[in-house]
Design a protein that fits this description.
The complex is a heterodimer. By secondary structure, chain A is an all-alpha fold. Chain A is built from 14 helices and no strands. In chain A, helix 7 packs parallel to helix 9. The chains are: A mainly alpha, B mainly alpha.
Chain lengths: ~260, ~100
């Protein structure tokens, strides 16, 4: 364990020879990421997959109840592959709205994937074909798992492992739910809804050591929570992007 | 329900995900841009955490998710493994809901 930490520090110094870079690497040395080894990454990815799978089942149930066919529910989970968007879409359908009205919140909730994709660009493979293929796996969970890693290779592994696990489980769940109907229990009674903020917290924590990250996190959280009562679903989270600004100012060393 | 909105949504969803990776095309990005990109996910994840804990639809709500997040926070601070953190949070929420 100690040897790998020293190698990490040497690699990081080579990549970022400036003063700010060595400060980051020393701080990074003092902390361990939540998923530092490949086996931990795989078990975390599997755990996330299981939780997502249960939500996939409830999506399948809701989609069919809202008037979609099982085939449509499954294709949606395969192609759209964004839980929040999909739940919002079927929610509008179930409330009597048309498909066009349903698309609006679905798209708003998918916009943050564009920011995720951009932030992941440095760790994705160089070949365009591979980048285009892996881009499909960009979601909250795969992004969070990738960003919790320090090394680009580990980040890519975490991204792919989580993305594939979630894709498989989400689709398996959707298939099961769309075929089984309403016989599945409520995810909330199992506390599964509490799992997601906990998982994101565990994955965010190691990133807070980077310069400006704590400031960006607090600013983003404040913007989002302030907007919740006043804006449609999805807007608070994407507006939190503004939190990057104070974070970058801190990272640059500007006194603010 | 017709297939067209579904396929359209799939297309839009993929384009949103792919625009960043495809446009940056594996080019080496400048240090300034990398600094920003390194931070981009941070406020988004922080926002996700608070929105998924303290709200339901457009209402600010305090329920079993809040103590569950507190449990998760303590475990993260104590460097507990990832699976322990998430399972403890789920168990805390489930327990609170079961007894109330």
């Amino acid at each position: 364990m100690r040897r790998s930490c020293r190698t990490d520090r040497q690699n990081r110094r080579k990549a970022q020879p400036n003063a700010a870079g060595s400060r980051v690497s020393l701080l990074g040395m003092a902390a361990t990421t939540i998923a530092p080894s490949p086996s931990r990454t795989l078990s975390s990815a599997a755990g996330i997959g299981i939780a997502v799978g249960v939500y996939g089942i409830s999506f399948g149930v809701l989609a069919v109840a809202a008037g979609m066919s099982p085939a449509q529910a499954c294709v949606m989970s395969m192609l759209v592959f964004t839980g929040a968007s999909q739940f919002a879409f079927v929610g509008v359908l179930a409330a009597g709205g048309g498909a066009l009205a349903a698309m609006v919140p679905a798209v708003v909730l998918a916009v943050r994937n564009a920011a995720y994709g951009l932030s992941l660009a440095p760790i994705l493979p160089r070949r365009l074909r591979d980048r285009a293929a892996l881009a499909h796996l960009v979601i909250d969970e795969s992004t969070a798992m990738a960003r919790a890693q320090d090394e680009p290779a580990a980040a890519r592994r975490a991204f792919v492992a989580t993305g594939v696990s979630v894709w498989l489980c989400w689709n398996a769940g959707t298939l099961a739910g769309s075929l089984l109907g309403g016989g599945i229990g409520d995810p909330q009674s199992l506390g599964l809804d509490a799992m997601f903020p906990a998982a994101f917290l565990a994955l965010l924590a190691p990133q807070l050591r980077r310069p400006g990250a704590a400031r960006a996190a607090i600013a983003g959280a404040m913007v989002a929570i302030a907007l919740v009562p006043f804006t449609p679903a999805g807007v608070p989270v994407i507006a939190a992007l503004a939190g990057v600004v104070p974070g970058v100012l801190v990272a640059r060393g500007v006194r603010g | 329900m017709s297939w067209a909105p579904l396929l359209a949504l799939g297309g839009v969803s993929y384009l949103l995900k792919a625009v960043g990776p495809v446009l940056t095309g594996g080019r080496r990005l400048g240090p300034e841009l990398r600094r920003v990109l390194d931070l981009v996910a941070v406020p988004l994840l922080a926002a996700l955490i608070v929105v998924k804990t303290f709200s339901t639809a457009r209402h600010l709500v305090v329920d079993a998710r809040v103590p569950a997040l507190a449990v998760a926070g303590v475990l993260v601070w104590r460097r507990a493994p990832f699976l322990v953190v998430v399972l403890a949070a789920a168990a805390a929420a489930a327990l609170l809901r079961a007894i109330s």
